Amino acid sequence: MTSPIDFGIPDLTGRTVLITGANGGLGRVTARVLAGRGAHVILAVRNRAKGEAAAKTMPGSTEVRDLDLADLSSVHDFAADFTDPFDLLINNAGIMIPPLYRTADGFESQFGTNHLGHFALTNLLLPQVRERIVTVASIAHRFGTIEFDDLQWTGRSYRPMAAYGQSKLANLLFTAELQRRLEESSSPVTAVAAHPGYAATNLFGSDDEHRLSDRINRTFTRVFAQREQDGARPILCAAVADLPGGSYIGPTGPFETRGKPGFASRSTKSTDTEVARRLWAVSEELTGVTFPEL
C-alpha cells in the first residue's frame, strides 16, 4: 500500500486559481478550501446562478465566469476574455454515465466534456498559467479503452460506463503528454492528475427516483462512499504539494476508494506514450486547438 503524502494548504495570498465545475461537488469543496487560504478563486461554471450561489458560501476572494465545456465556442469565448496570468488551473468539471447524447460539436458527451473541453481550455490558457495544471481523473480509467476507430460511439451500442472510462483514461494520457511537452519546452509549469476515490458527489445517479439502478446507486453511495470533503483531499494535495510533474494522486485506503492522499496506481494503458501522442494529435484535429508556443 502506498504511503500517504503529508501535506498542508499553505497561505495562498496573491495566487489565482481557476477551477472548472466549481459550483458543486468536489470543485466547490476545493474552491472553498483554496479561497479560505487566501487564493483568488475563479469558478468557471456552466450554470451561473449555481456558481454565484456557491461563491456566496465561500470565504475570501471569488468570482464566477461562464464556461460550457460541452461547447467549444464557449471554451474559445472564455479563453478570449481571460487574458490575465494565473497560477493554477484545476480541470475538475465532468459528467458521469448519462444516457447517450452529443455535445454542441457532435462529440459523445463524456469524451467531449471530460476530455476534449478541458484539452481545448488548457491549451488556450496555457501561456497564462504560471505554476500547475491539475486534471481530475478516476479509478474508472481502468475500465476504459481509447477506441480510435469509434471515439464518439457512432458505430456500436452505447455503454455509459465504458464511455466514462474512456474519458477518464483520456484525462491521464492527456496529463502525461502535456507534461512531456512542458518539459520539452523547458516550461516551469507542471501537469499532474488526481482522483477522489469513491466520493459521494452529485455525479452519482440521476434525478430519476423511479429507476431501480439509480435507487441502488444512491444506496450504495450512502453506505460506502467517503464525503465530498475527503474526496477533495487528493485534488488539494495535487494542487499544492511539492510533486514531480506527471504525478497521479489518490486515496491510499482499500482499493484506493478512500483514505489519505498519496501516489495512486494506474493502468498500463494510461502509461502508453504512443497512445498518448496519438490521442493528443486526434484531440487537436477534433478541437482545432494546438499546443501553444511557450
Automatic annotation (TrEMBL):
<dbReference type="InterPro" id="IPR036291">
    <property type="entry name" value="NAD(P)-bd_dom_sf"/>
</dbReference>
<dbReference type="InterPro" id="IPR002347">
    <property type="entry name" value="SDR_fam"/>
</dbReference>
<dbReference type="GO" id="GO:0016491">
    <property type="term" value="F:oxidoreductase activity"/>
</dbReference>
<keyword id="KW-0560">Oxidoreductase</keyword>
<comment type="similarity">
    <text>Belongs to the short-chain dehydrogenases/reductases (SDR) family.</text>
</comment>
<protein>
    <submittedName>
        <fullName>Short-chain dehydrogenase</fullName>
    </submittedName>
</protein>
<dbReference type="Pfam" id="PF00106">
    <property type="entry name" value="adh_short"/>
</dbReference>
